[in-house]
Amino acid sequence: MPEHAPPSVLFVCVHNAGRSQMAAAYLTLLAGERVRVRSAGSLPADEVDPAVAAAMAEVGADLSAEVPKVLTAQAVETSDVVVTMGCGDACPVFPGKRYLDWALPDPAGRGVAAVRPIRDEIERRVRRLLAELGIAV
Prior knowledge:
The protein is an alpha/beta fold. The chain has one domain: Response regulator (Rossmann fold, 3-Layer(aba) Sandwich), CATH 3.40.50. The chain is built from 4 helices and 4 strands. Strands 2-1-3-4 form a 4-stranded parallel sheet, covered by helices on one side. Helix 1 crosses helix 4 and helix 2 packs across helix 4.
């Protein structure tokens, strides 16, 4: 095991079909293996929202193989940073973790044009988070 493991970031939203998938994809695109990235949902959907997948494809992120995942206590416990995006009280809290809450509109049921501004705001926040973690992009 490396002496300094990369930080682990978990993105959580209700359905794990939109905001958390976009955030995880951006973090992976920008940081690569310098950060361990996961996403989950308190009530995961059956699939990633098609408009979200289309909007992310425009910036080079392929979400076609992604499947919404259920949020587990273990995922939270093993993360250094937990970014919630509307999971409410369903997100377990563990001492010593850094929690951020990103209030963002839910892209569910919106077209690609409406998803783009949400996607772009998520990119800005992911870049800010990487700077806070000391990871250059």
